[in-house]
Structures are given as structure tokens and as C-alpha cells.
TrEMBL record:
Record has Oxidoreductase as a keyword: yes
GO molecular function per UniProt: coenzyme F420 binding; oxidoreductase activity, acting on the CH-CH group of donors
Domain of life: Bacteria
GO cellular component terms listed in the entry, alphabetical order: cytosol
Protein name: Nitroimidazol reductase NimA-like FMN-containing flavoprotein (Pyridoxamine 5'-phosphate oxidase superfamily)
Keywords annotated in UniProt: Oxidoreductase
Every Pyridoxamine 5'-phosphate oxidase N-terminal domain range: 12-144
Pfam families: PNPOx_N
Length: 172
């Protein structure tokens, strides 16, 4: 059976859709103490292929991303019936650079896309005062990724690279 790979534009849209649909991903940062990676589940708010991460300044990952901006995250979709419906599994594994968001307009953007993506925020005051010294947003600009889409074929994967601004995929 011949596998027909989707075009790059379709893969980009599928990743954008996955990032907008899934609320939680696993984030890996690098420890400054021993160099080992640290992983934590995070709410990931997507603006296209750019993601925003909200954290507290007292969190380990906050200090780690300030010291070393190289991060990795994974977001996955497993159908409701579980792996028995494995032909619907999708995931993206991204390597990127995390930057502290300090521009007030971009903080507003991060709050807006978070509120749009996470319905539970409608009843929360979590982002009412993000400009306090206790909270922060980081933007992750993707550099490269591995896209897995079992709808194409079980275990089908595609290595990807992003444009320098991280807003699109490129085949260069």
C-alpha cells in the first residue's frame, strides 16, 4: 500500500488545529544544577504555531528557561476510545526557544489566546494581574519538530523545520 503524505500546508494546519484543541502538553527544560532535563505538564495556549506558557516566577521552570531558553514540548491527541483507535493518534514534538514576554501588548495577546482556548478561564481570575512579579508568560518559538499522524498511516512521522519567526513550516 502506497502512503500518500499530506502537503506541508495541510500538516501546518493540522498542527495549528491540534495546538488550539489540546490544552495540556509536556514541557522539558534544562536544569542549571546538573544539566538534566526537567519535565512538567503545562497549559499551552497557541497563537498559530507560537505557543505561550504561563508560569509562576517561583517555579523551577521559570528560572531554567531564563538561564537556558532551549526547551522542548509535546502535545498529543489520543482518541476517546484509546489506542484501539490508533489510526486517529496525532502528536507533535517541538524543539524551540523560550522567551520571557515583557511587552504589555504581547502579554495581552497571551492572555487573550489563553482565554479563547481554555473555557475554564471564563470563571477564573488567574490572568487578571499577570503583570505582578509573581507570574509570567513565556513565548516558545519553534525551531524544529517531529509530526506524527496515524491518520496518514500508523506510525507515520515527518521531521519539520520552521521559518525563522516560527510562524510557518518550511521545506528549506
Amino acid at each position: 500500500m502506497r502512503i500518500v503524505e499530506p502537503p506541508l500546508q495541510q500538516i501546518e494546519q493540522d498542527i495549528v488545529d491540534l495546538l488550539a484543541y489540546k490544552e495540556v502538553g509536556a514541557l522539558a527544560t534544562l536544569s542549571d544544577v546538573d544539566g538534566w532535563p526537567s519535565a512538567s505538564d503545562m497549559h499551552i495556549a497557541a497563537d498559530g504555531l507560537i505557543v505561550y506558557l504561563h508560569t509562576f516566577t517561583s517555579a523551577r521552570k521559570y528560572e531554567q528557561m531564563l538561564r537556558d531558553p532551549r526547551v522542548s514540548y509535546v502535545v498529543s491527541h489520543l482518541p476517546d476510545a484509546g489506542y484501539v483507535e490508533r489510526d486517529g493518534v496525532q502528536s507533535v514534538q517541538v524543539k524551540g526557544h523560550a522567551s520571557l514576554v515583557d511587552d504589555p501588548e504581547e502579554v495581552e495577546l497571551a492572555v487573550r489566546v489563553s482565554r479563547e482556548q481554555f473555557p475554564w478561564l471564563a470563571d477564573s481570575r488567574l490572568y487578571d494581574h499577570v503583570d505582578t512579579p509573581k507570574r509570567a508568560f513565556f513565548r516558545v518559538r519553534p525551531i524544529e519538530a517531529l509530526w506524527s499522524d496515524h491518520r496518514v498511516h500508523v506510525m507515520w512521522r515527518k521531521p519539520l523545520t520552521f521559518t525563522p519567526d516560527g510562524r510557518h513550516l518550511t521545506d528549506e
